Amino acid sequence: MEMGVLPGSEVRMEQRAPLGDPLLISVQGTMLSLRKAEAACISVTEIVAE
Fold it and tell me: Between 24 and which of 7, 13, 14, 37 could a Cys-Cys bridge form, CB atoms 3.0 to 4.6 Å apart?
């Protein structure tokens, strides 16, 4: 939550490092690099395929 990942925010996974860690996500126009353990704390309720 301290990084802007708030309930109801749209979270989009942008890239994954070659070995899978870290992940690059975008939240409300901000790009964040998270370790898998940090990203696992984000609860996703809906997945929209493009």
Answer: 14
Fold of the 1-40 domain: SH3 type barrels. (2.30.30)
Domain ranges across the chain: 1-40
Distance of CA 12 to CAs 7, 41, Å? 14, 15
* CA-to-CA separations, 19 to 6, 12, 36, 44, 45, in angstroms, rounded: 27, 19, 11, 23, 26
**pLDDT above 70 for 1:** no
- pLDDT digits 0-9 by tens, 30-43: 899 999 998 888 88
3-state SS, residue 37? helix
Q: How many Cβ atoms sit within 10 Å of the Cβ of residue 47?
A: 5
